[in-house]
Write a structure and sequence with these properties.
The protein is α+β, with helices and mostly antiparallel strands and 489 residues long. The chain has eleven helices and 23 strands. 27% of the residues lie in helices and 27% in strands.
């Protein structure tokens, strides 16, 4: 019987003409689901555990980023809390009854107004389809995305294999979408999932930080991020600029000009009164410190990161940079918050600064600083060893504490500098330590005593062993990190 006939028959029996059968499948899903609206609208249907996404941005590029809100806790493995994954520029496209998520190839371009030249480059290089789903019928374009987010797009299995932990595979039977981790903000939408990786034999490092080394469960986040709007001017990279950079190949350049184009990574910062004269800024760059940092380390990190306030002011951008403690009602998942995270590991490891950038221009969208909590403890132990011969133990303890906090201040400033787009400046140590982007070196003054000289010789040997150990750790960590990270230690 046709739907019109059904409605007529029900009406003749005295019931309303609107029937359940008339409700489109997509509308029914929306009625039954936990609704989260923002940059992307998401609908979680609790009875089936299905997550649906409303595709209202067809053929519009945006960023897809994975991250780890919960880390593994091993420096040797390198999968830390807060770690950002590869930045992918993607877009949804409709092909018949299907929605595909395509990663666009931003490495090969034609910066020209000539459509034929642009098409020639677009058709010369491959894209990557990351996922495909079937549209749910109805007025709203809904598509189930469980098989998109319940996947190892972050590359955890590859990292475990590369770090010698064995053959871990994603176990879908022990992996689930976390309803409380489905959020949508003005410029990004996030989906948190708990993924379990299984191996027949536990990896040595995994076993040290996991209750059952054969089953490693971590929390992974998929972030759909809006690309910045117009108004940002990309700035060409120069080797003497001291900045980190990204690059692409522009096939529209004249044949006598370089094919590879490089641009620096930096935040958008505009003066109220443009020009060389000092001016207040339209919108300051604000970094937020993880509220989980205890005192007195918290104050030391705030002090160190705030060194950049004076640097921006002296550069002519008055109040251009600020650092604040993350408010209790703020959500660090909001992409508008540049974060300084305090990360715990089972062993001491590197701190680093990462920037989520617009691959088209190099504009920094979010700065993410990761500070290892065991660094300050290691510095304290070193300081205690250096002052072991002091007769005044109260003074020795004060000196060890002061050295540790001074070192953590410097570390905060250094890693924030990376997320501002600055590279290392190892020449600064030969120029009165002019840059916080250098590594600080111990300054030792020889006062002439043979005994002191012997102690300093032993100290130099100890520092050599420490530096050698740090180099080994760095090589392992950098090997584990994805090549697409905008990262420096």
């Amino acid at each position: 019987m046709k739907p019109q006939s059904v409605a007529l028959a029900i009406a003749l029996l005295g019931f309303p003409a609107v029937t359940v059968a008339a409700i489109a499948p997509s509308a029914k899903i929306i009625q039954q689901s936990q609704e989260v609206k923002g940059f992307v609208n998401l609908y979680y249907e609790p009875s089936q555990g299905e997550l649906y996404l409303e595709v209202n941005r067809l053929n519009q590029p945006f960023l897809l980023v994975t991250s780890l809100p919960q880390g593994v806790g091993s420096n040797d493995i390198g999968l830390d809390r807060g770690q950002l994954g590869q930045t992918r520029m993607v877009q949804f496209e409709r092909q018949g009854p299907y929605i595909v998520l395509k990663q666009l190839n931003s490495q090969y371009r034609a910066n020209t107004l000539d459509a034929a030249e642009q098409r020639a480059v677009a058709e010369a290089f491959a894209d990557s389809v990351l996922w495909q789903g079937k549209v749910v019928e109805g007025q709203s374009v809904l598509v189930a995305i469980n098989d998109l987010v319940l996947s190892d797009l972050h590359g955890v299995s590859s990292v475990l294999q590369q770090t010698g932990q064995g053959d871990y595979q994603l176990d879908l039977g022990r992996s689930v979408i976390l309803p409380t981790g489905i959020k949508s903000f003005a410029k990004n939408a996030d989906v948190d999932v708990q993924l379990t990786f299984k191996a027949d034999v536990a990896g040595e490092q995994v076993a040290q930080v996991t209750p059952d080394g054969r089953l490693m469960s971590v929390r992974m986040r998929y972030s759909f991020v809006e690309l910045p709007d117009a108004g940002y001017q990309a700035r060409a990279y120069h080797p003497m600029s001291g900045y980190l950079s990204d690059e692409y190949r522009d096939y529209a350049t004249p044949f006598d000009q370089p094919l590879v184009q490089r641009f620096i990574l930096r935040h958008r910062l505009q003066k109220v009164h443009p020009g060389p004269a000092p001016s207040e800024v339209v919108k300051p760059i604000i970094y937020y410190l993880d509220s989980g940092v205890p005192e007195p380390i918290r104050s030391a990190l705030l002090d160190g990161a705030r060194w950049w306030e004076s640097a921006f002011t002296r550069a002519g951008f008055i109040n251009g940079f600020k650092v604040e403690l993350l408010p209790k009602d703020a959500d660090p998942q909001d992409i508008r918050y540049n974060m300084i995270q305090w990360v715990h590991r089972a062993t001491r490891g590197w701190s680093y600064g990462v920037a989520l950038t617009d691959p088209r221009t190099g504009e920094i969208i979010k700065g993410q600083v990761t500070l290892g909590s065991l660094r300050v403890r290691q510095d304290y132990l070193i300081a205690k060893g250096l002052t072991a011969g002091w007769q005044d133990r109260i003074a020795a303890d004060k000196a060890a504490t002061a050295l540790s906090l001074a070192r953590i201040r410097q570390l905060a400033a250094h890693e924030v500098g990376h997320t501002l787009g600055l590279d290392h400046n190892f020449a600064a140590s030969s120029n009165q330590d002019a840059s916080v982007m250098d590594y600080p070196h111990p300054k030792i003054q020889l006062k002439g005593a043979i005994l002191i000289f012997q102690h300093l010789t032993l100290l130099a040997s100890a520092f050599g062993m420490i530096l050698l150990s740090l180099m080994v750790i760095a090589m392992r960590a950098m090997h584990a990190l994805n090549k697409h990270y905008k990262l420096s230690c």
